[in-house]
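seq:
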Amino acid sequence: MVVEVGYARAWDLETRRPWRPMSAEEARERDASGLPYVAVYRVAGRAAPLEVRLVCWRDHYVGLWVYDARGRRTHEVDMRLLDDPARLLCRCTVAWRYTGPEMPEFDASCPRVTVELFPDGKGRRTEEREGGRGGSSVTVPRVRDDERWTERPAFGEWPLLSARVHGLTEPLVFEVGEAADGGGGPAPAGCWRPPRPARPGPVGELFRPGVRVTDGYHPEMTVVEPRRIGTLCVPSGLLAVSGPDIGHGDGPHITVPLPPGEYVLEEAQVRHSYPCAWEGKEVTRTDTTAVRVRVGEAPVATWEMARRLDDDPRLLRENEIFGFDTDGATGCFADAGAWEPLLALFEKGLIHGDPDPDPSVYEDFDDAMFLLRARDRASGGELAAFATTGDGTFPVWVGRSDGGEVVGVVVLVGGMPELLPEG
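struct:
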């Protein structure tokens, strides 16, 4: 069977058409330079492609979409180039099982199986059943090493990875098609691109009074002056940001180096009005959207997601995050140099409820997202615990000045609100 291979700058997922077709030689040059390009595999008599592959070595990414005869995407494969240049990690595979010819692409009721793999041998298999009936099940996938990793082919030597999906058992002959004139102009908005980790969004604006935002539920919320809660002593020069509900000896999830000192604790707040059915009138309330350790007064030039030493950003998929984990809807800022004694004080003061708390060690906060501050007398280091809006993983955003100094460390206790137009 003859399979035609065509190359292009990009692939429009909405129209299922290549954008800016190009020759194999131009694609080879882009491959060597790490620039993105796509390879499209077709057979005669079939309108939809067999598969489309996006290669972008600068983003450590190779992606694959498999199409059925009706043009629906049935499989996604996400591969990552890590430290070994000769092989690729099969980071994630997703398979949709359409139950009928009329079922739309990615229909919510379509059964789906997702397998996520990691280089340390861990993984997760999630099966979502038809129409949500029976819910979903999560298990540990059983995969061999040669299924977790695949050899990195040279340019022009990629096999048709979807051959088995399409039931193609006879030998395949690959022929490079001629590049049609694709014209110029900007790429369509629907063009496929490598996955991007979560971005900070308007973190700084949440501390700027007068800014208008929405959380999707309340149509308009106005940022008010940040609420100063107190201060935090970090004599070790290493700020810990973590869930305090972790085992002793594990250490904090995230640490951020900064000059030893005492820093201001603040809550970003928004004010909004809404009709309250309980009170029978419109009421106004103020909610906290984020908590911050304010390190300096310089403007923030950049925001970055803090991560642990073994967090590899090359493994993140679309909008995924690194951060601290909590099973108790609680996070904390603390002096990492006194982490263990501060963790013990937190447990004694908040979890077990010290019946006679020493005011020189503990301070409770009223009507605030911050819950408790504890002080280690030996070192002078402090811990300030705060509530989140739930369990899970929360990213830590570090704001830096033009010179690279840490200006602030922020945790959004809920989701990221969306900015509204000015005026």
